[in-house]
Write a structure and sequence with these properties.
single chain, mainly alpha, two-stranded antiparallel sheet, 11 helices, 4 strands, 70% helix, 3% strand, globular
């Protein structure tokens, strides 16, 4: 028997009561719980591990997982996704990890782990897709984690707009980040990936935030799948037009 506020309760009664009690959820369908940010911490660990292993292996990981238009056209389509998990240099990795630590954890609390991870991956996919769509076959890029993180910031702005909060500071921050990358990385088209991250981060944010409570999870999944299909269509059309293959 377990002590209760009045008398005692048997363990079976406690388990039965817990099974019939609905868990509180956020307005976006995530189970309400204390801040943990497990997915955010894993993402930070992946980015740090990528930097360390790539440094030790003398850019082996960059050669395998960075964005390369020609490699994607030849069938290495995983680069469209893996690009979002790459970073370049110690400073870039540290800045991305810092933004994830302060922005990722509260955003993950609102969306839930799987929604947050999909949002991150789609934002990185947006950067890679836009690079592929507008770049020449010789275009290659690393540091897609920047596009993924800026996509998270865009989705956070969508959430704030849904709640009626002022998003002008968020828009200003996005403009500053894009302009900074335009100045620093114009030749490498890093700013194109940033814009792709903003576009898909915004679309994914809308797909996660705006579905009504009725059948919310199904509508969220449908919206996210639709975004993936859109990116796939862009890649296929670009491959057919510019490379003559699919």
């Amino acid at each position: 028997m377990n002590p209760a506020s009045v008398g005692f309760q048997c363990p079976d009664c406690i388990r039965l009561g817990q099974s019939t009690t609905r868990r509180p959820r956020t307005s976006f369908g995530a189970a309400l719980k204390l801040r943990g940010g497990a997915v955010t911490k894993v993402l930070i660990g992946v980015l740090v591990a990528f930097y360390v292993i790539n440094l030790i292996s003398r850019n082996l990981l960059i050669g395998l997982f960075s964005m390369s238009n020609l490699a994607v056209a030849e069938g290495q389509v995983w680069r469209l996704v893996s690009y979002g998990f790459t970073s370049y240099g110690l400073l870039n990795t540290a800045m991305i990890a810092l933004v994830l630590w302060f922005v990722g954890r509260p955003l993950e609390d609102q969306l839930g782990g799987w929604r947050f991870l999909v949002l991150y991956a789609l934002a990185g996919l947006g950067g890679a897709t836009l690079l592929y769509a507008v770049g020449s076959p010789s275009v290659g890029a690393v540091g897609g984690a920047s596009a993924a993180v800026i996509g998270l910031l865009t989705a956070n702005g969508v959430i704030k707009y849904k709640h009626g909060e002022d998003i002008r500071p968020d828009i200003g921050l996005l403009v500053i980040l894009v302009l900074l990358n335009l100045v620093v990385g114009f030749g490498s088209l890093v700013w194109v990936a940033q814009i792709g991250g903003i576009l898909l981060g915004g679309l994914a944010g809308i797909a996660l935030v705006y579905p009504p409570r009725v059948r919310r999870a199904q509508l969220q999944v449908a919206g996210l799948v639709g975004i993936v299909v859109l990116c796939a269509a862009v890649v296929v059309i670009k491959t057919m037009v510019s490379y003559g293959t699919v």
